[in-house]
Design a protein that fits this description.
With 330 residues, the protein is an alpha/beta fold. It is built from 15 helices and eleven strands. The strands form three sheets. Strands 5-2-1-6-7-11-10 form a seven-stranded mixed beta sheet, with helices on both faces. Strands 3-4 form a two-stranded antiparallel ribbon. It has a two-stranded parallel ribbon with strand order 8-9. The mean pLDDT is 87.
Length: 330
Amino acid sequence: MKHISILIPQGNSIVDTVIAPYNMFKMANSYHQRLNKLPEPLYYIDLVGINHDPVTYQGLFTITPTASIGSVQKTDLIIVSPISGNLENGIEDNRAFIDWIREQRIENGSEIASLCKGAFLLAETGLVNGKSCATHWTAHDLFKQKYPEVNLIPESIICEDNGIYSSGGAYSILNFTLYLIERNFGRETAIWTSKISEIEFDRMSQNEFIIFSGQKDHSDDSIKSAQEYIEDNYQSKLNIETLAEQVHLNARSFLRRFKKATSNTPLEYIQRVRVEAAKKELESTTNTIMEVMFGVGYNDEKAFRNTFKKHSGLSPKEYQMKYNREMAYA
């Protein structure tokens, strides 16, 4: 019998992100056994703690591990549950997991799947250096700063690289769990689980859920001033020379410092600010796509549609129909 380890992190976490994958894997395990008339389930599923002590989340919910990292000598799949709150503290609180995950991967070839901000624990192992990884969009900037050797895939809900899986996060962990169920039990079991759970199948992108609020978690005051200028004047025609002059830098120095501080070029930043403004218009007004386009500073319809879809995962019309109540029920 194969083995799945769902980690029970110390400190802060969201209890649903532990219980939901556990229950979904149990459902899939049971259905797969019935479907294939097996004498026993394909997997044994453990809730694995650093030790056997119960862990309480949010002062309300207590989860008791069924095993500890000391008692699990070999496992086939490790689900790295997310940490929340202060991520630095969360990493230190769960340092024992990091060493155990690395050991299981190197010595036993275990597959690893991180949920949401569990990607920080995964990245701490060094196992995704030079590999692709996903995490929740609210943590992208911090993740890139802490783990520059990891290839962050910001738009993905699901990422896979040589048996190491990661997900965008929040309740997209349900879609991610379906993906893992398909990988381990087959598509028929995964589709059955999705129907019983009423969870959308094959959803792969988190772009439409991203709220771009600026990347100002840095100490370069000149670049912060340039960002604020862009946010106040995104409807206008902006260029590198104008922005550099605003903050008293030459264009070359401005470009270098802007990319270092924000992980975006100035053009990319302008695009993201404009797309976010367009999303808000599409959500709250009945303006036409052309009116929205002109209102956020675009004159080329094709360029606007392509840029919008790149950053939101949907066309402007698809986005408006999905998120604008008046349009959806018109």
